Amino acid sequence: RPPRATLLPYTTLFRSVYWLARSWKCSREAAVLAATAYSLGGNVLFQTCNVVFLVGAAWLPLAVLATDQLLRQRSRAAAVGLGVVLALMTLGGDPQAAYHALLGAVLYWAILFWIERRATVSDNPATAMQSTGKIATSRFGLLVIAASSGFLLAAVQILPSLVWTNASDRASFEQPRNLIELVGRSIGPNTDAAAMLLDEPTTSSAIWSVPRAGTHHAHAYQFSVAPWRLVEYLWPNLYGSPIPKNRRWITALPGEGRVWTPSMYMGLLPLILGLGFFHLRADCPRRRWLSWSLLLGVLASLGWYGIGWVVHEFRCGLGGAATDDFLVGPQVGGLYWLMSSVLPGYGYFRYPAKLMVIAALAISLLAATGWDKAWHQPTRLPRILVGLGSISFAMAAVSWLLRAPFYSWIANAPIDQIFGPLDSAGAFADMLRAFLHAGLLCFALSAFLRHATAVPTSGRAAVFRRLALAATVCEIVLANNPLLVSVPGKTLRTPSHLANAIHAHADSHGITGTPRVYRAAATGTPQRWRNTVAADRLNEVVAWERDTLLPKHHLTNGIELIESFSTLSSRDFRVFMRVARESGPKPNGVQTGPNLEVLNLLSTQYLVLPRSEESGGILGHAARSAKVVPTYNSNSFPRAWIVHRAE
């Protein structure tokens, strides 16, 4: 059973989309369709593994509702309401969602301004289009009220977070990454700690270049959505599921990167209806706003796959250029690159795939609008569905005929460090199942639509509408069920053997206080994971992480780690540990470890090292776990000391 921390935002999420659709005069069936597609879609559903982003997704529909009322009705109450929602997003741990909500409000404001200027007929009430000279009721003034109220309500978290962010590794750079840093570097002295470590600090810009590996600039573009992944909206799990068995055959493609969510599928009917009512120049402001939000959300989520990447692929494929020969960074020219380079503070965020939540909400609301119109008059939708169904069955037949070359190609897929070698048979089954799933559903939905639109006002039509809605709910649940993963609660409650051994040793030697431990970052995962495929691998992973004191599992075992990793790490401490790794004796020969004298100064009482590096001071054999062994460091300094002589 999911924990309450997950159920609460998830329940809020479903209801907020339903309320939003109903407030826009959509029928109950359309509102249920939108809420189901958004809440059970892969981009949102998989965030049950990352609750802070689930919180942001839960409040986003209410931010859309408040923005619409603020700009169309010029409501001061809606402005304060939007500020409350922005604060709740921030306090829930997702300030980037609040940033996106404000950007969406500015986009809506620009659309309304353009429509009014062009005097385009819309569905907006006359009072919503009247101009006013009062700042308190102007759209700009109301947006300022919303942003200000949101900032004040969440200031207790925003202000210390800003201080910590400026002192974190995200603020560290050797070359300016955006226009603000470029201007600041050119007019002010270079005081950045990381840059001062360079022999020859430079003021050239990194905006156009390939991000340097290991920096926040490079990390920010991880989890970009590859363009070929967009077909997952039509065929669920087409590329295979990566969990709990490695069936993701698309990893054989060199350009495939890290995956934020294994599937983006949100239902076939919501996709068709949403795209059917996608219109960038629609007279209705809401429809135009949702259409632009969908387009921009998808483009921004591409992240790393910008114009620079397209140019590089053409040079490699047609010109024979080396794979590491970039004219400009792959991210250059993309929307996410533009946002990171221009928008104030946006460069401190990361992971472009998070913008797919905006696209998911936009297409869900477009589908709700399309639902009410599709069932009341004959449309081309049944023929479109038949065509897609035929294509899906044809793709299934082609896949079956070409299964031998397919197996040969995916044989070169890389081995996953955790989930092992590719399950080729399972990968092919997932692909074939995706085509058959879409094909059968297309023909079923086409039949429902044909019978319902024949006599739209009859009771028979209502039955077919409900059948289509029920089929959509069931097929989304069937397709996205693998995204809900869990491990037994017993695994999270079982204490670590290493922690127990360390505590026992500390008690027997009279060592007081919480034991302070250095865990070697080079500790590798068990080799058998890379050689085998197991259905319970996730449970094995969590058990191994707890047993080897991987951060953050040490917190529940009463252990302090010298070096941990978090979303915001101290820049000074990172530089300090970087210097410590570059010189001096290493602990027991670990080449990537920090200076042993530095660990002594940090009061490191125990060292958790790879077993192959063990030497002296080893605890009992029962404490050994999966290639690691704890070693007592008798030379560690106390937590505090007095220096009597200094040179």
Describe the structure.
The protein is mainly α and 647 residues long. It contains 26 helices and four strands. It has helices spanning 4-23, 28-40, 42-45, 51-73, 76-91, 95-118, 139-153, 155-166, 179-187, 193-196, 216-219, 268-276, 285-301, 307-318, 335-342, 356-374, 381-401, 403-410, 424-454, 459-480, 489-493, 497-508, 527-531, 537-547, 571-581, 596-601, and strands at 516-519, 560-561, 606-610, 628-632. Strands 2-1-3-4 form a four-stranded mixed beta sheet, covered by helices on one side. Helix 2 runs parallel beside helix 20 and helix 5 (76-91) runs antiparallel to helix 6. The radius of gyration is 28 Å and the shape is globular. The N and C termini lie far apart (62 Å). The model is unreliable at 120-133, 193-203, 613-618 and 620-625 (pLDDT under 50).
